[in-house]
Structure formats: C-alpha cells, structure tokens
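Researcher: Quick test of sequence recovery. Tokens follow.
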C-alpha cells in the first residue's frame, strides 16, 4: 500500500511540473504497439515508454533490472528474479507474471517482431519466483533476444495492446501531438517537421528546443554559428544502405550490382553532405562491435564499373526506380547517387513517398532499389533475419527477398559457432545489400537545455536527463 501511495504522490507531483520541451522530428511514429514497432521513431518511443526484460548497454553487454542470469550451457537459461520496484503507468505493479505474459504473447504472435527470435524456445517454466528457459538448440546470443518491452498481463485478451508501459516516460496523444511525460513531470512534445530547413529555422527562432540528425551539412554549419543554439556531435553506428529487390530481373544480375557498387563514390558524398563524424560503411556493424570483418572501405572505380555493366549483358541505358522518403535531404542524396550512376549508363528514376507509404512498399517488396538506415542493431543474428530465405516480411527483415542456398548453409553454421566471418564476406561478395555510411550523430538544442548526452546509436536516451531552464 505504501508503494502505491508513493506512486499516486509521484503522479500528482508530475502534473504540477509544467516544463515542456519541444522536440522536432522528421516523421511521426507509425505503430507504438511494441510487437509491431518497426520504424526507427516508433522504436525509440517504445524504448522510453517500456522497460525491457533485459537491455543492452553501451558496450553491447546484457543487463537486467529484474533478473540475475545464469547460463548453464547456451541451451538452459535461468533467470533469477531479483524482485521489481516498477509500476505500470496505470498504477498496477509490474511483477513476474507480466514478464511471463510478455514472453508468451510474443512467441505466439507470428506478426510480432520478436516472434522469430523466440522460436528457439522449447519451454518456459516458472520455478518458485524464477524463470527457467530451455531452448531447442544452444544459442550463444539468446539473451539479446530477451530485450523485449514488458506488457501488462492485466490486458490479456484485449484485441489491442494499450500503450501502458512502466519506464521513465508515459505516452499521451494530445492536441494531435505525440507527447512523452517524464516521471518528474517534464513533457517532451514531438513535433513532426518533415523539412530539415524548417526544423533548423524553428530551433533558431525558439519554436523548438531540440533537433537531432537528418540535418544536411550546410545547415549543420549554420547551426554551429548561431549564438542562441548549442550543438553536439559524435560518431554513429547506425548503417545507411541501399537495398535491392532480388525478384527483379535486372537487379538479380550480379554484374549490375557490382557496377552500382563501384560507381558510387561514398567518400565524396560524405565529404560534401554529411558531418565530420560520418564514416564509410562496408558491413552492418561499425568497428566498435565485436562482429566485424576486415573488408575494403572504398570500392569506387568508375572504369571497373563500366566494365561490369558490359558484362551484365543489359541494354543501355539501364533504367531503374529508386525509392526514398519525402525528406528533402534524403531526396538530395538520392539525386547525387542518380548523377553518379548516370556516368555508367544506369538511369535512376527517383520516387519519393511519404514515410508511411514508403515503408509499406519496402515491407511489401514493391521496389527495385531503395535507401534506408538500420538503427539499434546489436545481435549478429540479424544477418539471418536479413539474408535467409526463411525470413521474408512480414516474418523477417529480408526485404529484398534475397535467396541463396550457399548463404543459408553459411548462416546455419554461423548460428552454431557464433562465427559470422564467412557470412559477412558472402554478403559483401554477393552485394546482398550495399552499405553506404555510418552517419555521424548531430544535435542542436536551445541555450535553455542542459544535461544533454548524445548516444552513438542515435537513441533518445538523452530525454531521460535533459532539463530546461526557463529563466531569462
């Protein structure tokens, strides 16, 4: 009872604190049900609203607020319950029943983004106050798969999962705005401002307090020159890439993909359009992750690209459609890629779409080429989700419908040994996708904002600590 009284007092205090921080974002979230949150904005909101069974720290280590974890043999995992001091935002205490409910709900919902990860589970048993998870086969990376947002078992049987988490932020939708209310009462109001020029204008005019990423290089320089704005930057580990549709007769020609790879000059694009912390990419993970291979970073060779086009046997010009979001900066980058590929006889027609339509098309395989960014990747088993023939959407991340018997065998071996080198090299040789760069993180805040910390993965964890001083 005392805990619940404290919780009510906390809610009352939160309402008294009327501090508001206006955060400009490039697009609104698409789905805040944790099972189906697949776009970056939705995932970042979910991470702030829901606690997870386990979480991954900045050093790619596994931590939990609820369990000590004993791993016997990579097949039997004992989760020793430490107890819970957490409450859901509707006032209900979070306990082990909610964690069991969360695991059960996600492993029985084929459309859940956690379903494929949890298929490895043979059984989940409650032993006293502890959980014993037995797997069908040993899995060295299983704990990464338990980074699942915890749902309230109170809503078992509901047709829809209500957005009720237990983390630092409570979510509300007020006045057509997505709002995050922190446990100290601070309100983070999310404003969709698709045009980066408008986001920059709004923060310099004090209409916004914060913007992060998706800011072109000239605007980065402009913001750095403004006395009423503070700027932050660091290296990032989210990989931007070009995806290919392998069901397309042109794209399935490996010589065309090789030509495209060799015709793109990543270095010049990075130098002229991205901030100084952007690095070229040649694989999914950046160098600070343990799962990387020593591959060439710059394959640019215009003459070799022209030779590959000739080897393809395709009639010139090769006409392809390239899909991107309606963000003006992303359209600009697509235009630069268009100009580079034109030099080898590959003519790109750019089709920009609103975010919702664009993302649905990618999931449905309705594209020839597209560009996106993978965010928040930690577990190397993502290679299986991206390149196994068993993981086409909506049950996986193989959006390009890539299918290769050799790749499937390499993935099978990697899952057993946790050695992903051969898989990484095969992805590179086959150009199963085309990594572009690890875009450096950049943020700008008003002078009133303090306690801001920029994450390398572009997360919104800084919202947990930032403060706003309203004094003049």
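Model:
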């Amino acid at each position: 009872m005392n805990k619940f009284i404290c919780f009510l007092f906390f809610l009352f205090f939160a309402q008294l604190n009327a501090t508001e921080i206006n955060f400009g974002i490039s697009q609104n979230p698409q789905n805040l049900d944790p099972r189906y949150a697949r776009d970056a904005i939705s995932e970042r909101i979910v991470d702030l609203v829901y606690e997870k069974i386990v979480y991954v720290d900045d050093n790619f280590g596994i931590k939990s607020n609820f369990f000590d974890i004993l791993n016997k043999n990579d097949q039997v995992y004992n989760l020793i319950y430490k107890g819970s001091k957490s409450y859901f935002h509707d006032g209900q205490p979070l306990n082990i029943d909610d964690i069991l409910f969360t695991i059960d709900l996600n492993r029985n919902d084929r459309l859940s983004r956690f379903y494929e990860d949890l298929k490895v589970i043979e059984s989940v048993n409650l032993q006293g106050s502890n959980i014993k998870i037995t797997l069908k086969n040993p899995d060295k990376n299983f704990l990464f798969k338990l980074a699942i947002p915890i749902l309230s078992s109170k809503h078992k049987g509901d047709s829809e999962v209500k957005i009720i988490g237990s983390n630092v932020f409570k979510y509300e939708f007020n006045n057509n705005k997505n709002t995050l209310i922190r446990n100290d009462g601070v309100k983070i109001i999310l404003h969709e401002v698709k045009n980066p020029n408008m986001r920059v204008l709004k923060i310099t005019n004090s209409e916004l307090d914060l913007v992060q990423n998706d800011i072109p290089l000239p605007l980065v320089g402009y913001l750095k020159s403004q006395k009423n704005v503070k700027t932050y930057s660091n290296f990032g580990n989210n990989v931007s890439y070009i995806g290919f549709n392998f069901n397309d007769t042109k794209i399935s020609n490996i010589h065309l993909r090789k030509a495209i790879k060799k015709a793109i000059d990543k270095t010049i694009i990075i130098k002229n359009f991205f901030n100084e912390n952007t690095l070229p990419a040649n694989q999914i993970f950046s160098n600070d992750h343990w799962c990387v291979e020593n591959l060439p970073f710059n394959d640019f060779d215009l003459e070799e690209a022209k030779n590959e086009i000739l080897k393809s046997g395709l009639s010139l010009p090769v006409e392809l459609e390239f899909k991107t979001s309606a963000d003006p900066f992303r359209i600009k980058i697509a235009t630069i890629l268009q100009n580079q590929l034109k030099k080898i006889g590959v003519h790109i027609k750019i089709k920009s779409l609103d975010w919702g339509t664009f993302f649905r098309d990618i999931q449905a395989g309705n594209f020839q080429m597209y560009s996106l960014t993978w965010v928040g990747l930690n577990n190397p088993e993502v290679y299986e989700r991206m390149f196994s023939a068993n993981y086409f959407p909506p049950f996986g991340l193989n959006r390009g419908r890539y299918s290769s018997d050799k790749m499937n065998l390499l993935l099978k071996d990697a899952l057993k040994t946790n050695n992903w080198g051969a898989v990484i090299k095969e992805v590179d040789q086959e150009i199963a996708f085309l990594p572009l760069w690890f875009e450096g993180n950049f943020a700008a805040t008003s002078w009133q904002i303090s306690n801001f910390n920029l994450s390398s993965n572009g997360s919104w964890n800084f919202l947990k600590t930032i403060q706003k001083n309203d004094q003049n």
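The chain is about 30% helix and 20% strand.
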